[in-house]
Design a protein that fits this description.
This protein is an alpha/beta fold. It has a single domain, classed as Ribokinase (UDP-N-acetylmuramoyl-L-alanine:D-glutamate ligase, 3-Layer(aba) Sandwich). The chain has eight helices and nine strands. The strands form two sheets. The chain has a six-stranded mixed beta sheet. Strands 7-8-9 form a three-stranded antiparallel beta sheet, with helices on both faces. Strand 4, helix 3 and strand 5 form a beta-alpha-beta unit. Helix 2 runs parallel beside helix 3 and helix 5 crosses helix 6. It is globular and about 40 Å long. It starts with a strand and ends in a 22-residue tail after the last helix.
């Protein structure tokens, strides 16, 4: 029986990030994917030209419809643009006891803002306590808890109630890219050679979804992160083969299946 995961996130019309990337990552990991759309974006590899938020009650109705019928083994949460939507999602998840991967999506690869500053406090108060793991990149961590070394930022995030923090190192400098999985019991590092490509659109969405897929399959968090890290590195290495768009193209989710 296949494991099942749910993504709650925005739609990317270009297909490289958001709901589309999440479902591709679930499938690449061998997990059935369901989806709740929080916003429709007019987006390609170069820019986000429009964002249409889905009404809060429609988002809540989507969550209810899925959870009422499908045994969801893990949930990934991505783009949530407003305080009211964050509260609606949190309320709709009351009673859900499975693992939740929370990706605090704030800025698109193009630089466009996806999360209003007013929503950050709501994210902390309503969803941090529900998160099995939070997956910020370095700019997101800075917006959440201020400047500082990644380990210090991770500890500050743990104090806000999340179960663990995966500090992603893609925005750091150096030839080696290192992610830090920090929990109350210690830190585990995952390193890989930095890939010289601009085709990294959707890496955060894909990474968090691949982790959620592992948790849905019953893997321990560190094992789910390790597998997702290895898979994503290969997806970035093979990204140029896709030749999608004129800006930041997507990673190759199905590099193990086709070229």
């Amino acid at each position: 029986m296949a494991a099942k995961a749910l993504t709650i996130a925005g739609s990317d019309s270009g297909g490289g990030a958001g709901i589309q990337a999440d479902l591709k990552a679930f499938s690449a990991m061998g997990v059935y994917g369901a989806s709740v759309v929080t916003a429709v974006t007019a987006q390609n590899t170069e820019a986000v030209s429009a964002i249409y938020p889905i009404p809060d009650d429609v988002v809540a109705a989507q969550i209810k419809a899925v959870l009422d019928d499908i045994q969801v083994d893990a949930i990934k949460i991505g783009m949530l643009g407003t305080p009211s939507l964050i509260k609606a999602v949190a309320d709709a998840l009351i009673g859900y006891e499975g693992p939740i991967v929370l990706d605090p999506v704030m800025v698109a690869k193009s630089g466009d803002t996806l999360l209003a500053d007013s929503a950050i406090a709501a994210l902390k108060s309503s969803l941090f306590g529900r998160a099995t793991v939070l997956t910020p990149n370095l700019p997101e961590a800075t917006k959440l808890v201020g400047e500082g070394p990644p380990q210090a930022q991770a500890k500050a995030l743990l104090q806000l109630g999340v179960g663990a923090v995966l500090m992603k190192g893609g925005h750091a400098n150096g030839e080696i890219c290192t992610d830090h999985l920090v929990s109350q019991t210690g830190t585990q590092n995952f390193s890989a050679q930095r890939v010289n490509t601009r085709n990294t659109h959707g890496t955060g969405c894909s990474y968090s979804s691949a982790i959620a897929a592992g948790l849905a399959q019953g893997m321990a968090l560190n094992d789910a992160v390790s597998r997702a890290h290895t898979w994503l590195h290969q997806a970035i290495l093979r990204a140029d083969e896709l030749d999608v768009g004129q800006g930041h193209g997507p990673v190759h989710h199905f590099h193990a299946l086709w070229t």
